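Researcher: Next sequence.
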Amino acid sequence: MDIVYVSVTNGYLARNAGDSARKSSSSSRLLGARLHADLASEVNGWVPARTFPDEKGHVKTGFIQRRQISTRQQLKVFYLDVGQGDATLIEAEGGIVIIDGGPNKGFHEILVKRLEALQRADADLQLPPRSTLFINAMIVTHFDKDHFYGLTRILEDPRFEVGTLYHNGLPRYGFGSGKDIALGDVTEHHDGTRSISTDLTGIDSARSLVAGTLLKTENGNDNLFSEFLQSAIAAKDANRLGSMDRLYRRDPDAPVRTISGVGDDLEFEILGPVTTRTSGSVRLPAFPDPHSVTITNPNPSPSESHTVNGNSVVLRLQYGDRRFLFGGDLNQPAQQYLRRKYGQRNPFRAHVNKACHHGSSDFDLPFLKKVKPEATVFSSGDNGSYDHPLPDAMGAAAKHGQGDFPLIFSTELARDNKTSGKIMLGHINARSNGDDVLIAQKKEKASTRNPWHTFSIPYPGPFSGQ
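Model: Next structure:
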């Protein structure tokens, strides 16, 4: 048997060769879905194929058209529901990339299930089941708990190995550290703006920070950021983490900087954070709360939360001709800053956009107009302290999206299900072959034939074929 992947947006597994997709015994297969097929037994363009066993050992068998499959993996982007937070799992040929990990154990549980699925697939082909899952890159956009803390458990688990851990360089200092806005050393410039140091670089600087007393809570305990660094150091010492590195963009006019070691199919361009100067020590802008900005006080004191969020790592994933944007928790002053830095150029245009800051109202409309996506994904939870996504963020994303039917997805609104009726998590599932993009979410009423609501982008509308 051969490992193949569905390479079209309308793939399906038929009970008998020649059956149509509409036949009740046929079942749809998402673009990128893995199948085990007997390519040598192809007859009249149809190939015997089966799914690999699910958690209960169930397998679907049948036939698939040879033109619907490829031996190449295709792109899968899972926007995962981890409650109030961000977590994205990206897979393609030769590469697995994580962007953020949510605040809790949810992402770890998802990765364990992913490894177990691969182990079942190995066993189905009578291969030795793998014992570990290699993650080429683990990217922390910024060190807010709802983005980084869920990665701690993954780094601690010997079943997971990480090539490089990337971050933006801004530590979260503890109580009484003496650091400006608990992030670093702030410098005021002649024009009234301020910049901040980036004190975290590689694993050696992580060791130094943990060994000192700057990452303590008011009670003298290690803060959450320290716990994360300790898990990274332990993974490094156990040879389960290759390296740790800081991501930033010095000069928007310089050649594109990309992340290496993630396979030939994935190209991540680093768009931010953008440093305040093109040489010397790496310093990032210290942003104020935009509500404090007035005509008479255009540069108020910097805000910790706005500086943390505003210096999120910004990445644009290029896969074939399709582009996906990830902006962490960018806010209004940060988006304005990036627009100024990039001038007339627009590297932010993307087909699919992960909405910044879970759908907060703190966004810059001209920046959103530059992105102009065909689909926007909001990642949020039921935490009553935030109420994300907010109506203005969703409305603006729809109004300034691309096409007549710009799509809005929400991990909080989408819900999977079990036959028992138990509500499960609302993952948003994007797939691409480099030319087409398909985005799916589970139907709330279970269906064995087609459990997905699927949308190709640009979405032509529900009655476009009539």
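Model: The first strand starts at residue 2 and ends at 6. The radius of gyration is 23 Å.
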